[in-house]
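> call design_seq(struct)
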């Protein structure tokens, strides 16, 4: 999108425009809150640079940026409201030509559309409390675009050639679709525009077991919670997730990988609000792992997956997954740790 459009869209969709974070922001408070403050600064700086340079909303930057910053703000952390509004309105603009949000005809040079971007952006925007009409309209437009690719069997799998964990197995992506279609706005909507699609996704998941991965296990727990299944029906899933926690307090994406920010942040997100034996201890250990492994710039290092080709080139560019992992670590921490109180941010 031309720079002129960025300036036109520099309005705040989540509240009145505010100045950037004051320089005298307190640094006292529990260590986890200090970790979150540093990660917020990284997400804002790197996310803004990505948007302005790449002119692409992407699956791994803008959606999780909006999601993480909205979660943090709603729990009392101070974020750059002006930047959050600019990024959100840019990504939701109807004439946004960012390639992963194509309301326009698909680029003929691409063999497959990446419909995961619109879905993740709808999830990110769903974290905004009390969104205005423009935000809801944009979110529904992205959902309609993503849902158009749902299979006749109810499953959903965008860009099968993409790299995990952003692009994952069919059951994981179908789980994300179901969760997106059963968000707070849909529950309140008496028309319930996505009922048939949501029921089809739930039926497909009930017929197909989860893949043997950490992400698939975590997603099944989230789905079961959203569907209101009793704890006894999902206890085995929760026990399995707890058993996968490593000695260092983190979680791994796969059995061959080390603990990382993405898997640990997603686990914290799933465990937040869970009342069961062993959960509280697991949460504290995970928070300690993320506090210990955060880098000086506020991010977390992420490693290549074993299946990725070696050598130079885009396949070895870890900037996207580093940002994605940092965003998920932030989401997990703010969900699992009480936010700052009055006068503390």
């Amino acid at each position: 999108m031309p720079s002129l459009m960025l300036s036109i869209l520099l309005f705040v969709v989540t509240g009145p425009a505010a100045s950037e974070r004051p320089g005298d922001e307190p640094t006292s408070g529990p260590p986890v809150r200090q970790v979150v403050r540093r990660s917020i600064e990284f997400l804002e700086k790197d996310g803004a640079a990505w948007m302005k340079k790449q002119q692409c909303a992407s699956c791994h930057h803008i959606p999780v940026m909006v999601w993480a910053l909205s979660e943090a703000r709603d729990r009392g952390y101070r974020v750059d409201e002006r930047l959050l509004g600019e990024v959100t309105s840019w990504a939701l603009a109807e004439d946004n030509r960012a390639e992963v949000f194509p309301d326009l005809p698909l680029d003929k040079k691409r063999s497959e559309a990446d419909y995961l971007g619109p879905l993740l952006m709808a999830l990110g925007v769903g974290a905004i409390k009390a969104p205005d009409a423009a935000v809801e309209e944009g979110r529904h437009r992205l959902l309609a675009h993503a849902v158009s690719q749902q299979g006749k069997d109810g499953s959903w799998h965008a860009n099968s050639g993409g790299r995990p964990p952003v692009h994952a197995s069919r059951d994981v992506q179908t789980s994300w679709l179901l969760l997106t279609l059963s968000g707070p706005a849909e529950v309140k909507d008496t028309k319930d525009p996505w009922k048939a699609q949501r029921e089809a996704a739930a039926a497909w998941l009930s017929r197909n077991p989860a893949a043997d991965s950490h992400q698939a296990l975590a997603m099944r727990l989230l789905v079961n919670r959203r569907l209101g299944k009793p704890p006894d029906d999902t206890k085995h899933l929760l026990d399995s997730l707890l058993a996968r926690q490593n000695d260092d307090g983190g979680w791994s994406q796969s059995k061959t990988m080390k603990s990382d920010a993405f898997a640990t942040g997603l686990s914290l997100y799933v465990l937040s609000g869970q009342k069961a034996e062993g959960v509280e201890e697991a949460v504290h250990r995970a928070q300690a792992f993320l506090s210990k492994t955060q880098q000086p710039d506020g991010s977390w290092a992420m490693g290549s997956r074993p299946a990725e080709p070696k050598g130079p080139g885009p396949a070895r560019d870890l900037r996207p997954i580093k940002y994605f992992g940092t965003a998920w670590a932030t989401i997990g921490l703010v969900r699992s740790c009480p936010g700052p109180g009055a006068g503390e941010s």
